[in-house]
Design goal:
431 residues; mainly alpha; Cytochrome Bc1 Complex, Chain D, domain 2; two-stranded antiparallel sheet; 5% strand; globular
């Protein structure tokens, strides 16, 4: 799922491609997107159209287009603890883009994480997920990228500190965390479930945000889809496997609505996930969205809770914040979210019994109170209702108080919020 994605050495680079060699693949497998020789302009046009759709599913535009810049021209800076990386130009420009890549070069990048010259790609280019993409779908995306206007703009060199500027260090990362191989359907599951698994685990690379990473930027395998902080964007990707954000008790229609429109009867998406819906998911077919929802619904749910992520306050101070927050809530929030916290969904999400409010990390509700925001504007919901920012109106203690009240009222089981955490997030980048 925009996946902008966070991280240690997982911070960036989609060095994918397009080239001068004619693309000669077309057709579509009923499950994954098939492959057959294309010999006519009509076949080629259909292949490009399919590639555009798949590029949307992979959210390629999110990393390779600077806001206000030319499409796929790269240059998006991503600051990491190891320095800054810049996404490359992946337009079919021969001098500065990737116009000299072949279809084989492109597939190798997706499937093995190697660039055209054989160098290793940084794992934030999600080749660990894209390795699951079929050759037919790779060729379709390649055909589409070949069709976009070339942009004669050089890719900026990365500014990584020593020794992280040595790509050979990635050999160890790959040994530990990368397993090459196309997606293999589970014969015990339905065609729809397998299609959803292919999109979620492959092109969608949803696990990159929703799985915790370790000190070297590798995914914690035991915590797949169990949630994690997104440091570069200062948001928390909720667990999809536990009570805090798990989908086990969601209806498939609500999951599908959230993916397709950004809002549902259960809540709305904001922050990085809003970008994913806006740039990627809203363009998928109803069948593909339903397939993704069907797969996500079956992700195993775990009883164990994620690690504690909150700055702790004393019990007495937490009680004080709770009482202060009640007045602030009734003055500032109850008009939209109701005095009982039930809201008026889908326009004004419920806060009572809302898992996103009670998560072990309070980053997201704090950021929403500070910065406000809108769910994504989508074809199905072109004028979403938004949340006003309160950063100028409320102090750090007042924000902590109202978030504490929301997290601990109406049966919610969240913990108090520290004003220091609010202060830390107040100066955080907005995206």
């Amino acid at each position: 799922m925009n996946r902008k994605p966070l991280f240690a050495l997982s911070a960036v680079i989609l060095a994918t491609a397009a080239a001068l060699v004619p693309v000669l693949w077309s057709g579509q497998d009923p499950l994954l997107g098939g492959s057959a020789v294309a010999a006519t302009p009509a076949d080629q046009a259909e292949l490009i159209k399919q590639g555009e759709y798949l590029a949307r599913a992979g959210d390629c535009i999110a990393c390779h287009t600077v806001r206000g810049g030319q499409m796929f021209a790269g240059g998006l800076p991503m600051a990491t603890p190891f320095g800054t990386l810049y996404t490359p130009n992946i337009t079919p420009d021969d001098q500065y883009g990737i116009g000299k890549w072949s279809a084989n070069d492109f597939y190798r990048a997706l499937h093995t994480g190697h660039s055209k010259d054989g160098s290793l790609l940084y794992p934030a280019f999600p080749f660990a997920s894209y390795t699951k993409v079929t050759r037919a779908d790779s060729d379709a995306i390649y055909a589409y990228l070949r069709s976009v206007p070339p942009v004669n703009v050089p890719s900026r060199p990365h500014a990584l500190r020593f020794p992280f500027n040595n790509r050979n260090l990635l050999i160890g990362w790959r040994t530990l965390f990368f397993r090459e191989g196309e997606f293999k359907p589970d014969p015990t599951r339905s065609v729809e479930w397998n299609r959803g698994a292919y999109l979620v685990e492959g092109l969608g690379h949803c696990s990159m945000c929703h799985t915790s990473i370790n000190a070297v930027g590798g995914p914690v395998n035991s915590a797949a889809f169990a949630g994690g902080l997104i440091p570069l964007q200062n948001w928390y990707a909720p667990s999809l496997t536990s009570g805090e954000g798990g989908l086990g008790d969601w209806d498939i229609k609500d999951i599908a609505s959230l993916l397709r429109t950004g809002v549902s009867e259960r809540g709305a998406v904001f922050g990085p996930m809003a970008d994913v819906v806006h740039d990627s998911l809203q363009y998928l077919t109803d069948d593909d969205i339903h397939a993704m929802a069907t797969y996500l619904k079956t992700i195993p749910q775990r009883k164990e809770a994620p690690e504690q992520m909150q700055m702790e306050t004393s019990e007495a101070y937490g009680t004080q914040l709770l009482h202060e927050g009640e007045k602030i809530y009734h003055d500032q929030c109850a008009k939209c979210h109701e005095a009982n916290g039930l809201g008026m969904p889908p326009n004004f999400p419920p806060l009572a019994n809302n898992p996103s409010i009670q998560m072990h990390s309070a980053v997201n509700p704090i950021r929403m109170v500070l910065n406000g925001g809108y769910p994504p504007s989508t074809q199905a919901n072109p004028q979403p209702y938004g949340m006003p920012p309160f950063a100028q109106a409320l102090s750090d203690e007042e924000v902590a108080a109202v978030v504490t009240f929301i997290r601990m009222s109406w049966g919610n089981k969240g913990t108090p919020v520290s004003p220091q955490q609010v202060a830390n997030l107040r100066s955080a980048p907005l995206d």
